[in-house]
Specification:
The structure holds 2 protein chains of 2 kinds. By secondary structure, chain A is α+β, with helices and mostly antiparallel strands. Chain A has helices spanning 10-16, 67-79, 191-209, 249-268, 314-321, 328-339, 343-351, 355-363, 368-386, 397-408, 414-425, 431-438, 446-459, 461-468, 475-485, 492-503; strands spanning 18-28, 83-84, 91-94, 104-107, 114-124, 130-144, 148-152, 164-168, 175-181, 221-230, 241-244, 276-281, 286-292, 302-303. Chain A is elongated. Chain B is of the alpha/beta class. Chain B has a domain at 12-256 and 443-495: Alpha-Beta Complex (Amidase signature (AS) enzymes). Chain B has an 11-stranded mixed β-sheet with strand order 1-3-2-4-6-5-10-11-9-7-8, sandwiched between helices. Classes of the chains: A alpha+beta, B alpha/beta. Chain A binds chain B through residues 53, 56-65, 92, 94, 96, 98, 101-104, 159-160, 163, 165, 167, 296, 298, 300-302, 305-308, and chain B through 83-84, 90, 92, 97, 100, 102-104, 106, 201-206, 208-210, 236-240, 317-318, 320-321, 324-327, 329-331, 342, 344-346, 349, 369, 372-374, 377, 381.
């Protein structure tokens, strides 16, 4: 572990190798109850309070399938243009791990509910325009989540070397859909962007379907990135690494880029790429070796005998098809037209992972341009600073629209609006509550403002003279003085009006 | 009123109904009998004296208020230790569950409680129901009341011995490959394996999920039917439970009739490998049925000969996965490995499973793990499932010609304790005639049909019916029982020797 990992510069790596991607995304469904029992799925409850004999794996307890999870799985499959199995089963994936109550995971193996689909993502080309790229979907299958282990002590936070471990089974049995792509070939140097665009699109799609909270930071959308290199596109697939739990859009892109540079260096040096699980380190932006998969784990899959086969009727599948949201490409095109955004503007929004946020902010009453402005400037900056996805910020699109409404009403200016965001993000309540609590409302009382303007004119006779001579641009200095006196809580436009009234 | 422990459940229920006796008296009489003879028989792993008496008193109070919850309200029962019983220790015959008190009831147990049956205690069994003799119980074998040196069958030997020794009028068993029927045969009692899915498996500690089926143990066909109606019927907690009304079983048992019934003698379940006395009694039973108007033909089920082999692949495969949950993490035994300062979870699991499981359990876990392994799955588990399909087809073809099939229940009478303990294959052969019904999911009953001349021990007649036609077992079984009892001048069990501690 102390050896330095050699990396090859990205451009050089791409000149010498062709990257092939594979993405496995786990989505936690937002069903009210778990996959196989009636326990609630709410995130963040006290440990081990959302459990029962079934999800604790008590002797004798049996699973009963959650029909809502099947419905969600079918809708996800259809939204990804998959075929829906006429008949499929669950299987047991057998392996021992303390956070897995039964020591097998009830999953699907060779009979997934949805298979053979595709989705089209948009990545920028050399000219900066959006270019479609088709990602083939291998399968989407249903399974149950495991519990959570908290390894205490030791340096790695992993089970080996820990002093003791705490187990929380609240998450055990939460419905998951695993969506697996076929090998993504032909992305070339855009592999990192394709990976990111795919996950971002999946997230927007799942949100539009209403089947998941898709909060990467809470683990309701988790991504494993598989990557291999080959000398050229006609060569056989190379040995892949599997980087686990890459849990932000930015990290997906970075992890792909990192693995390309790492594997290229190894292959160029005559070393082999080891088939292994790798861990992603968000802070340093590198992957490190996990367990080796040279001896493939044998999960001893067999059909789950405690559940009956699932045979969704074609009528039901068609009925569910009727509930699908607009496909991503059409959706984006429609919004772009409605919002009157340029291609570049739209790409910025999508690239920042802010499409759904902007859409919901517009739906809540803000104008598209202003919604975009807040998300891509103020909020993007804050997300970047705290290292989270935009959608993970503790502010809702409705609250963003609320801030803009305050601006529109002239009750706060842009500068104060930033302070309102501070308050909302700090958990001080709604924009209205923050304004009230922090006393942020602009002074629109003309007598108070007028007095301040008079004082400013008196204190700056030279500037006042210039304005009287018609140099209106000089008003800025007086406005600044007034704003300073009012500690920013004044409507600058009104201040300008008052100054010009007096000096014309 | 005579000895309450010698009365049938039906007669006890009638006596209760007429107010001639109280449930508290009946329950106490059985607890006294247990105290007197169970030191010799060892049918019980746990006696629930206080709990049973409390329920009995409630039943009595209900009855004085003119209420009754079921036909068996107030009639006590013994429950195999494979069933989760809230507040009553449950070990499944294994050291690995020593001290476990389930926080929930199996559906069968919940139905017994709802019907007002006092639970006398938990009966002995082979560890995790793996065996045909109870010799694999971690708590020592049960003894056959006909000859205490001999086995009472298994895995449910505790339940059959309890009923045969008049320690309980009724008992619950589970039958995975014959664990209700074979013990019934070798103890001169009645045992029924219902149609798979006819009685809920929820709360039954799974051996092999696709084979396990709970059912009644009794001393008369009518008593078994009364109990079957209490525990049977759809359970939403068991996905494999059949969503159909239970056929009128008590009515069938009361209207036993053989005239015009087409009876098929299964060629493959008899002849070579069957003890002479077993064959002789079987032939006589068939004669009796013919005389009573049955239309008897011989029927071949050619694939039954592969049943044992298929069974011993499917069962261990499912069991290896079902038993993975016993890992010391959440309940039951926890063993720390010797000489390890800070053992890892993995080391604790290994040490616990090494110490907590007996040899037969380990044998089957290893067998099942192997059979499911990658590269062997198709050859073993896959092939076994195909055999299973063929056996189902044999049954389907046979039931086109006949209403019921008959055979000896077990190839031998009760063998001596220790006789086959070192020869697993000889032990497995005990289930040769009972296994096909489990593989196909069809129902079967065993009724006593005499004593083998060579050893004076009971033999059993097995009757099999098509899936969901459990009522046929009771109609034909009750008729055969009446003919046989008439030929002996009373029930076979009356010929059993008095136990030393017993009362005349």
């Amino acid at each position: 572990m102390t050896t330095t990992t050699e990396l090859m510069p990205y451009d050089e790596a791409l000149a010498r190798f062709d990257p092939v991607l594979g993405l496995e995304v786990h989505v936690e469904l937002n069903t009210v109850s778990k996959m196989f029992c009636g326990c609630p799925t709410e995130f963040g409850a006290e440990p081990n309070t959302q459990v029962c004999p079934t999800c604790l794996g008590l002797p004798g307890a049996l699973p009963v399938l959650n029909g809502k999870a099947v419905e969600a799985a079918i809708r996800i499959g259809l939204a990804l243009n998959c075929s829906i199995a006429e008949w499929c089963r669950f299987a047991r994936k057998n392996y021992f791990y303390p956070d897995m109550p039964k020591n097998f995971q009830t999953s699907q193996y060779d009979e997934p509910i949805a298979f053979d689909g595709w989705t089209e993502v948009t990545v920028p080309n050399e000219d900066g325009d959006g270019e479609p790229f088709r990602v083939e979907i291998e399968r989407a299958h249903m399974e149950e989540d495991t519990g959570k282990s908290l390894h205490v002590g030791g340096s790695t936070g992993r089970i080996h070397g820990a002093d003791y471990s705490l187990l929380d089974y609240n998450r055990a049995g939460v419905p998951l859909i695993e969506i697996v792509t076929k090998p993504v070939e032909g992305a070339g140097e855009k592999a990192p962007e394709v990976a990111r665009a795919y996950v971002a699109q999946l997230r927007d799609l799942l949100l539009a379907l209403g089947v998941s909270d898709v909060r990467m930071e809470q683990g309701s959308l988790r991504c494993d990135v598989n990557l291999s290199l080959r000398p050229d596109p006609s060569a056989e697939l190379g040995t892949r690494s599997e980087t686990k739990n890459v849990n932000s859009l930015r990290s997906v892109e970075r992890a792909v880029r990192y693995e390309v540079t790492r594997q290229a260096a190894r292959l160029s040096a005559g070393d082999k790429v080891v088939q292994e699980t790798r861990h992603w380190h968000e802070d340093t932006g590198v992957t490190t070796s996990g367990r080796s998969k040279e001896q493939a784990e044998d999960y001893r899959y067999f059909p789950e005998p405690d559940l009956v086969p699932i045979a969704p009727s074609r009528e039901w599948v068609e009925e569910l098809r009727g509930t699908l949201p607009e496909p991503p490409r059409e959706h984006r095109a429609r919004l772009q037209a409605e919002w009157e955004f340029s291609e570049l503007e739209m790409r910025d929004v999508v690239g920042a992972g802010a499409l759904s946020s902007v859409e919901q902010t517009v739906a809540a009453g803000a104008s598209p341009q202003l919604a975009k402005k807040w998300w891509l400037s103020e909020l993007a900056r804050r997300a970047n600073e705290t290292g989270v996805e935009i959608t993970a910020l503790p502010i809702t699109p409705e609250q963003v629209a609320g801030v803009q409404a305050l601006v529109d009403a002239g009750r706060v200016n842009d500068k104060l609006a930033r302070q309102v965001f501070d308050g909302v993000l700090a958990g001080e309540g709604s924009p209205e509550e923050v304004v009230a609590a922090r006393g942020l409302e602009v002074v629109s009382d003309d007598s108070a403002l007028g007095a301040a303007v008079d004082r400013a004119i008196e204190a700056n006779p030279d500037i006042a003279a210039k304005i009287r001579d018609g140099k209106q641009a000089a008003a800025g200095a007086l406005i600044g003085a007034v704003m300073k006196e009012m500690r920013g809580q004044a409507d600058a436009a009104r201040v300008r009006e008052l100054i010009l009234e007096r000096l014309s | 009123m005579g000895d309450l422990t010698r009365m049938s459940a039906a007669d006890l229920a009638d006596a209760l109904g007429r107010g001639e006796v109280s449930s508290a008296d009946i329950t106490q009489a059985h607890l006294d009998r247990i105290a007197a003879v169970d030191g010799d028989v060892h049918a019980f792993l746990h006696v629930n004296a206080e709990g049973a008496l409390a329920v009995a008193r409630e039943s009595d109070a209900r009855r004085s208020a003119g209420e009754s919850r079921s036909a068996l309200d107030g009639v006590p029962i013994a429950v195999k230790d494979v069933m989760a019983t809230r507040g009553i220790p449950t070990t499944c015959g294994s050291r690995i569950l020593e001290g476990w008190v389930p926080p929930y009831d199996a559906t069968v147990v919940a139905r017994l409680r709802a019907a007002g049956l006092p639970i006398l205690g938990k009966t002995n069994m082979d560890e995790f129901a793996m065996g045909s003799s109870t010799e694999h119980s971690a708590w020592g074998p049960s003894h056959n009341p006909w000859d205490l040196e001999r086995i009472p069958g298994g895995s449910g030997g505790g339940s059959s011995a309890a009923v045969a020794a008049y320690e309980a009028p009724l008992a619950i068993g589970t039958d995975t490959g014959g664990s209700i029927r074979q013990p019934a045969a070798v103890t001169g009692t009645i045992g029924v394996k219902p149609t798979y899915g006819g009685v809920s498996r929820y709360g039954v500690i799974a051996l092999a999920s696709s084979l396990d089926q709970p059912g009644p143990c009794a001393r008369s066909v009518l008593d078994a039917a009364l109990l079957h109606e209490v525990i049977g019927g759809h359970d939403p907690l068991d996905s494999t439970s059949i969503d159909l009304p239970v056929p009128p079983l008590v009515e069938a048992a009361r209207s036993g009739d053989l005239s015009g019934v087409r009876v098929g003698v299964v060629t493959e379940l008899g002849g070579e490998g069957y003890q002479e006395g077993v064959r002789a009694r079987f032939d006589e039973s068939v004669e009796l049925m013919v005389k009573a108007g049955a239309d008897v033909v011989e029927v071949s089920c050619p694939h039954f000969r592969y049943g044992l082999g298929a069974y011993y692949l499917i069962l261990p495969s499912e069991a290896s996965s079902n038993l993975a949950k016993f890992d010391a993490m959440r309940y039951g035994l926890r063993v720390l490995p010797d000489g390890v300062d800070a053992p890892s979870a993995e080391q604790v699991m290994t040490a616990t499973r090494a110490a907590g499981f007996g040899d037969e359990v380990k044998r089957r876990i290893i067998l099942g793990t192997y059979a499911l392994s990658s590269g062997y799955y198709d050859a073993y588990y896959g092939q076994a499932q195909k055999v299973r399909t063929l056996i189902s087809r044999d049954f389907a073809a046979a039931f086109e010609q006949v209403d019921v099939l008959v055979s000896p229940t077990a190839p031998t009478t009760a063998f001596k304790i220790g006789e086959k303990l070192d020869d697993p294959l000889a032990m497995y052969l005990n289930d040769i005639a009972t296994i096909p019904a489990n593989l196909a999911g069809v129902p079967g009953i065993s009724i006593p049909n005499g004593l083998a001349a060579e050893d004076g021990l009971p033999t059993g007649l097995q009757i099999l019916a098509p899936a969901t036609a459990d009522d046929r077992l009771y109609r034909v079984g009750a008729a055969a029982e009446a003919l046989l009892n008439a030929s002996w001048g009373g029930p076979l069990l009356a010929q059993a020797p008095e136990l030393v501690g017993g009362r005349a």
